[in-house]
Design goal:
The protein is elongated. Helices cover 55% and strands 7% of the residues. The protein has eleven helices and six strands.
Length: 334
Amino acid sequence: MIWCDDLALSMSIRDGSRFWRIDAAKVTSQKRLAQLPISEQTESYRHFARVYTQHGNLLTPGPAALTLARMGSRSRYPGSFGSRISWGGMLTPAIRNIIIACTCVFFLQTIVKLLFPPEYTALFNHYFGLVPWYVTRRLFVWQLATYLFLHATIWHLVFNMLFLYFFGVDLERTWGTRRFYQYYFLTGIGAGCINVLIKAILDPRGTGFSFAIPTIGASGAIYGVLIAAGIMFPDRQVWLFPFPISIPMKLLVAGSIIIEFFLSLDLGGDNVSHITHLGGALVGYLYLRRGLFLYRFRNDYLDWKRRRARRKFEVYMRDHKNEPPRNSDDRWVN
């Protein structure tokens, strides 16, 4: 009786009144028999039996039953997933690393808040958060990237990471890890630049209170991921929790952008940087649609050149009245 797997092969043969178990895993020259057709597998088993009966060190007594020398973690059948639950397929590498990094930084923020006076928490946020005054006056340019890893509360962190997971996993699977990293940090840093630019325009001297308030959170990059999901998967249905209805992704993204726009017009303020959210969405849209703008510019330029050449040709034909040049050796062929 024989049993074959990618990782091990055992077979029992009868020699007189005794059964011998042959473990093919002991043979260094074993081929991957599981990849061969059934006829070739049977012939290979007979070859193993003939060879191994001549080498006692490869034979061990055993019962006439199926045996398994070593079993791997991968299931025998591709359609089944075995008894173990693997979390590797749920989180893509970039999403997992970003979530881990933000969680570790928040843990560090919590330690500083619990073990040190409040002044140290404010200093930490002003040094690593996005403060327009420090960026423009002291050139703390690293704040354009570090503010993405800081969060104010646990719920701020949880909701940002949930949105990143919901809308970012399929993007990374479509683009690849490297391109997703590039897009994520491009939209996050771009959102920070727009935040600093808008506040510098509204307060050129930098004496206002908002010019010295740190902005923290990954929401700018999250909105960039949201706009990318709306562009890449516009017709995917999204369930609006807790309401039992679903809407297309493009409507969800459009509604979120409209709500953020009107919230940004509220002069009273709600301690949320809506400008950063809109900035991340704008940078993401321009980045994803840059090819469309370039192609349109190129096509318009080529159309203008064709129209110009046509006008020149029409002027030439009108001046020469459809006649060939007189001083030319060329002959028209009718």
